[in-house]
Amino acid sequence: MEECQKKGLCYNYDEKFVHDHCCTQKKLYLLDADAPSEEEYESAPAETTEEVPNEEAPVISYNALSRITTPQTMKVKGFFKKCPLIVLLDSGSTHNFIDPWVAKATDCYIHPTKTFEVMVGNEGKIACKGTCHNVKLSMGHYTMKSDMYTLPLGGCDIVLGVQWLRTLGTMQWNFAELWMTFQIDEQEHTLKGLQGGPLQIVSSHHMEKIL
User: Which domains does the chain have, with CATH numbers?
Assistant: First the structure.
């Protein structure tokens, strides 16, 4: 090919190569393959294609990524493998999420998944790369188990969104006094929210340490 290029010839034939060159002669290529017999073809198992449900992209609220508590959220104390956690009950998030640092600290295996994007409110997006299966979380006398997406969370350790809320059925949720009551298997459970402390002015030195 290098020799033909030096002489300005076609790679296939000894013809002068010009712009928009087309070979005057054509080549026929034959592909030889061993085709299965009719009996082998009929006995071969049929291929099946797993259909992936067309679900909407998960959404997480700004409250889960910041330390701001809004009227549609409530923070409670929880435990995962005896590790104390801050759990955000958030009706503005569609699914359940766990911070990857919490998963690593509790030796919870992160199952890698195809990277997809999680909507933050109605604007930004964050990449999600894994899930934790069967996370057993205790809050008071109530214990639940759920799969959770791994996502860096700024204002809590775990987020329980609509994915969990819709499993409770009829419930009472008092945002003013920060408590929630629901029944599971005819047993009543009450979760009490954590009260936020008074606002304080942060010094510039402390802010630099935080940053």
Answer: 59-195 (2.40.70.10)
